[in-house]
Amino acid sequence: MRQVTGIRVCVFDAYGTVFDFASAVARCDDIPEDKRAALTGLWRDKQLQYTWLRSLQDRYADFWQVTGDALDFTLDSLGIAAPALRHRLMGLYETLPAFPEVPDTLRRLKQTGFATAILSNGSPTMLDAAVRNAGLHNLFDQVLSADAVRIFKTHPRLYEYCLQQLNVEAKQVSFQSSNAWDAYAASAFGMRVVWCNRYGQRRERLPGEPDHEVRSLAELPALLAPPG
Per residue in 116-168, pLDDT tens? Predict the structure, then answer.
């Protein structure tokens, strides 16, 4: 196994990597069984599309608004008119659970000597709620939001902001994301990347190349040489 060397900080994407975005729909009994998969998939797809389109248009709105707009589009597309359901789903999105292996992985990394951080499109309020609900507030040294630079991934400005806040060079960061487009963009920017391919995605045809591909963050500590 070829370990990644020279790493000082482990930086994680939030949604889909640390937090299970699909759990919002899964925990909502009001949604018909035959529409749950479609709702989860379309909501996520539209959420990401709106971040990219707003970045291209230079019309920033925070991730909470983007998530709500995407949900409105999804409910309308699926013919579900239920204001109470919308309210409940947005509330559940603030309390997304972490994937089971996340707490132990973070503890192992910190015990080895790595600093840890989140870099996410999520707004500060959303991220604070998710981190605290999952009991991870003592396991991250910093939680960094796109809100600070008012543009979403994959714009290089957001990855540069991460380096500035952590006071490290790109090559000293191990960046973890479950989103292939994010993993490839961080690699193209110059970070070392472990793509946590939870969902069996195909490899992207984009600039960049992840250093490792895993199916669970539990595999991460063994891939990183301890900081010198």
Answer: 999 999 999 999 999 999 999 999 999 999 999 999 999 999 999 999 999 99
Q: What's the domain count of the chain?
A: 2
Is the pTM higher than 0.90? The answer reads: yes
Question: Is 193 found in the same domain as 88?
Answer: no
Domain match, 142 and 186 both: yes
**Which residues are tagged catalytic?**
13
Whole-angstrom distance, CA of residue 40 vs CA of residue 24: 8
Residue 53 domain flag? yes
